[in-house]
Amino acid sequence: MQPQKRQPQKINSLVFTALLAVPLLALAAPVKVDIKGGKLGLVDVQTVIGSLSGSAGFVAINKKAEADLGARAKALQPLQARAGSLNASLADRQAFAKAQADFQALSKSYGAEQQKAFAPLAGRVNAAVASAAKANGYTLVLDKRKAAAGLVIYANAQSTDLTAAVQKVLKK
Asked: Measured over all CA atoms, what is the biggest interatomic distance in the chain, rounded to whole angstroms?
């Protein structure tokens, strides 16, 4: 009896992007809301965080994670192709499995670092977004980058972008 061949799991770019955005999920969780008579606002959360004093550690971790995980994801592609081919050797499958496990462990480690670095910033960012939204009459505010990734089909950037207003609140 031959052992069953296990198909390698694909590392997809959406999963990779989601892993980098773990600390920002609380700011942009998709919610179905009826905003009749209200206004929808968008905030570029990463830009706001980048302009916030004390955010250098978080920004540096994000850049490092993005570069490191991006390079490793790229390196996984040929291993995945070899391991997924019909004539893949056991060594090919094992090499891919090890590289994939290493990628996932590193991704988890970066996620923990990002959460730790973001924790002291989260309250200030959330308060500034809430303050700017209330002051400008917005009912619902979403992360602009999440919205651009398919959450929002159309938004007039001139009338919905609150990024500058949030940055102004943070500078007070």
From this structure: 71
pTM: 0.60
Q: Which domain holds residue 86?
A: 13-171
Tell me the pLDDT tens digit for each residue of 48-82. 998 888 899 999 999 999 999 999 999 999 999 99
Residue 43 sits at φ, ψ, to 5 deg, of: -130, 130
Domain presence at residue 3: no
Residue 2 within any structural domain of the chain:
no
Residue environment code for 82-110, b if the CB has 16+ CB neighbours within 10 A, otherwise e: bbbeeebeeebbeebeebbeebeeebeeb
104 located within any domain: yes
Segment 119-139, tens digit of pLDDT = 999 999 999 999 998 998 888
β-pair type (40-43, 140-143) = parallel
**Is 5 a member of any domain?**
no
Say which DSSP state 36 is in.
T
